[in-house]
Write a structure and sequence with these properties.
four-stranded mixed β-sheet
């Protein structure tokens, strides 16, 4: 709701549209990726909130928010155009995705495994006792990598020793594409540092993927693509922008309203606290690992 007045969706001319042709009004404005840093700083969080509302609230989302599909209108709103590529997420999956983020923040890896099973990432008979400790290790490594991001530039040589992997390369190459499309080559160094940062955890994560029968639903790849494109645009203005940090407050508020039970709501509050105090979140993860 807080982003509704700052987002514009073009009118659909239904009399001119058909099953395979969508005709909408022409929208005047400039591409978001070419806007000033001030405008980007104001509207990228709006775009993130808009995407999360589509994904987790409505279960139907625009999964092609590339730089040419995000426009700043003359009155300062963010317009989304070209709805030719959209995807449905089943209602139960929207709740499970929400609880999965909460369980990541709470370092509840047993619950996270159950989320993965419910989403179809893992079969029902997966060895939970073996998988949960491995996921906890990855969570701790990931949190430490996030907290050390500000030091990544000084430690670039050490981080660069890790070979590229499918997880880190897929994330950062999409963000780099968005930054490059925006014509901001200087932002590529920020993307490169992000890539090296994720090398720290990608080997561990890939090892888990190889040892267990993970299977990613089709729509999840579209979710990842949309998120990394938004992050790539944001990096053109703010080299320290982190899409996950930007998303967590919205997810926390959403979780508190859609998840059931006092435990789920408490987990949402823990998640919100971790956003305001990442150092404490890292300490909590480390203690829970032990």
């Amino acid at each position: 709701p807080e982003a509704r007045d700052r987002v514009y969706i073009p009118h659909v001319h239904r009399d001119l549209s058909a099953r395979r042709v969508l005709v909408t009004e022409w929208v005047e404005g400039e591409y978001l990726a070419r806007a000033s840093p001030e405008v980007l700083g104001r509207l990228v969080p709006v775009g993130v909130a808009c995407f999360l509302a589509q994904l987790l609230d409505h279960g139907f989302f625009h999964c092609d928010p590339h730089p040419g599909n995000l426009i700043v209108t003359p009155d300062g709103r963010l317009a989304l155009i070209d709805f030719g590529l959209c995807a449905h997420v089943p209602a139960p999956d929207t709740r499970t995705l929400t609880s999965g983020v909460v369980h990541v923040a709470a370092a509840d890896t047993l619950a996270l495994v159950e989320d993965a099973v419910a989403l179809g990432f893992l079969p029902e008979d997966v060895d939970r006792a073996r998988l949960a400790p491995l996921l906890r290790t990855v969570l701790v490594s990931g949190t430490r990598a996030v907290l050390s991001a500000s030091d990544a530039e000084g430690q670039g040589d050490a981080l660069a020793r890790a070979p590229p992997t499918s997880v880190s390369a897929a994330w950062s190459s999409a963000a780099a594409d968005a930054a490059e499309s925006a014509g901001a080559g200087s932002s590529y160094s920020a993307v490169a540092r992000r890539k090296r940062r994720f090398h720290e955890i990608s080997d561990e994560l890939n090892e888990v993927f190889f040892r267990f029968p993970f299977s990613v639903p089709d729509y999840f790849a579209l979710i990842t693509r949309a998120l990394v494109v938004l992050e790539g645009i944001a990096l053109t203005a703010d080299k320290d922008f982190d899409i996950l940090d930007s998303a967590l407050p919205w997810v926390a508020r959403h979780a508190a309203t859609v998840l059931e039970g006092a435990q789920a709501r408490e987990a949402a509050r823990v998640l919100l606290a971790s956003v305001t105090s990442p150092e404490r979140a890292a300490a909590d993860l480390a203690s829970k690992r032990e």
